[in-house]
């Protein structure tokens, strides 16, 4: 057993309970942050994008034109410019399309503020018991379900569509991990029938989170369709629907977090397929089930947690025929392209479960590409 200590960035998310005045200020700050992002994106479209430094120098003048910008946290406005800068850097690198304007309806309702130490030695962000001090908001109660460990970097304040408020506290902390050289090596095949099948034969069933609440959502949507759009009852129902979606999202994330943590802690090597989820969602028959699985979210969790727990995560090319190839003799069976074929027998006599065979092939291919036994 070898103990390792490594610095990592980690986020703690809690629900907060602001009073009415604080709620209004949070809503205003979210709106102002969105305004700054859109205002400077418009400037970039008129001419060309300059830089974060040049745009941040224009903020004081903009505050003179729009006095209400002075009412909110100035750091949040700076962070909005940093987000715009990141969006343009991603565009210039070819990773993403040209940045789009943020809309009230579609954009995430949030803003980010940074921690700093004043000359007097005090900080603008502090935690005491079940309260957190935030710039402009002062002390806000939050549901402290666990201790926040590490040095606070920044805090993101967000509002859900259901009208609830949250904070995400980003910290820098030292993680202690135990490295065991006898840890396992697994191939992981993601699917719809079973969420995950491992090369050692474990089948993790698909919880189908959305399916469990489909009837309830359908009834609420029918009721919503009968209400006058924009009326009080219409807004109440919209919140009810948003609460159900939030519940589904939280249950899904909890399942993915627990599974990804277990896999990365217990294994030294994980091999998965580099799936083209965006392309797969074009299949109208399977799109709902694929999006409910949240494979991209699960893969992202595996990526950062594998770094935490000294586990190697390797992705095999999506065009590798993992399901069609016999893991015993290596012969390819094109008929297995048909997703309805769950079991098949190879010419060599080996009997295969489709998903288990795929996971074994992924592990074998991953080892080959990494040059390990």
Fold blueprint:
Elements: E1 2-17, H1 20-46, H2 52-56, H3 59-65, H4 74-92, E2 110-114, E3 126-128, E4 131-134, E5 138-142, E6 151-159, E7 165-179, E8 184-190, E9 194-198, E10 203-205, H5 209-226, H6 232-266, E11 267-273, H7 277-280, H8 287-293, H9 295-308, E12 312-316, E13 343-345, E14 351-353, H10 354-370
Parallel strand pairs: 8-11, 11-12
Antiparallel strand pairs: 1-5, 1-7, 2-6, 3-4, 4-5, 6-7, 8-9, 9-10, 13-14
Helix pairs in contact: 1-4, 5-6, 6-9
Write structural notes for this entry.
This protein is 41% helix and 24% strand. Helix 1 (20-46) runs parallel beside helix 4, helix 5 runs antiparallel to helix 6 (232-266) and helix 6 (232-266) packs across helix 9. The strands form three sheets. Strands 2-6-7-1-5-4-3 form a seven-stranded antiparallel β-sheet. A five-stranded mixed β-sheet has the order 10-9-8-11-12. Strands 13-14 form a two-stranded antiparallel sheet. The model has no long low-confidence stretch (mean pLDDT 91). The chain is globular, with a radius of gyration of 25 Å. The protein has helices at 20-46, 52-56, 59-65, 74-92, 209-226, 232-266, 277-280, 287-293, 295-308, 354-370, and strands spanning 2-17, 110-114, 126-128, 131-134, 138-142, 151-159, 165-179, 184-190, 194-198, 203-205, 267-273, 312-316, 343-345, 351-353. With 373 residues, the protein is of the alpha+beta class.
């Amino acid at each position: 057993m070898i103990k390792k200590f490594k610095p990592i960035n980690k986020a703690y998310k809690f629900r907060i309970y602001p009073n009415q005045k604080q709620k209004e200020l949070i809503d205003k700050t979210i709106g102002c942050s969105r305004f700054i992002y859109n205002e400077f994106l418009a400037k970039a479209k008129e001419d060309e994008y300059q830089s974060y430094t040049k745009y941040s120098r224009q903020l004081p003048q903009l505050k003179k034109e729009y006095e209400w910008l002075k009412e909110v946290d100035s750091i949040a406005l700076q962070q909005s410019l940093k987000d715009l800068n990141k969006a343009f850097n991603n565009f210039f690198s070819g990773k993403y399309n040209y940045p789009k304007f943020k809309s009230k309806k579609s954009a995430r309702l949030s803003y980010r503020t940074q921690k700093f130490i004043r000359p007097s030695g005090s900080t603008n962000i502090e935690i005491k018991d079940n309260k957190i001090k935030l710039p402009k908001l002062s002390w806000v109660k939050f549901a402290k379900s666990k201790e926040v460990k590490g040095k606070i970097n920044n805090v993101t304040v967000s509002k859900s569509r259901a009208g609830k408020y949250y904070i995400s506290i980003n910290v820098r902390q030292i993680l202690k991990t135990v490295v065991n050289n006898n840890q396992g090596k697994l191939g992981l095949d993601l699917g719809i029938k079973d969420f995950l099948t491992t090369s050692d034969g474990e089948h993790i069933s698909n919880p189908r989170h959305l399916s469990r609440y489909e009837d309830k959502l359908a009834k609420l949507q029918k009721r919503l369709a009968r209400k006058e759009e924009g009326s009080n009852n219409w807004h109440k129902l919209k919140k009810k629907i948003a609460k159900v979606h939030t519940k589904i999202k939280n249950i899904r994330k909890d399942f993915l977090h627990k599974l990804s943590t277990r896999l990365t802690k217990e294994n030294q090597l994980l091999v998965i397929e580099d799936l083209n989820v965006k392309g797969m969602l074009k299949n109208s028959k399977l799109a709902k089930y694929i999006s409910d699985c949240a494979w991209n979210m699960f893969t992202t969790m595996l990526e950062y947690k594998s770094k935490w727990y000294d586990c190697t995560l390797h992705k095999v090319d999506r065009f590798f025929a993992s399901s069609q190839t016999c893991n015993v003799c290596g012969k390819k069976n094109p008929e297995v392209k048909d997703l309805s074929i769950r079991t098949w027998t190879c010419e060599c006599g080996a009997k295969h479960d489709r998903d288990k065979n795929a996971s074994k092939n992924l592990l074998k291919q991953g080892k080959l590409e990494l040059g390990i036994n």
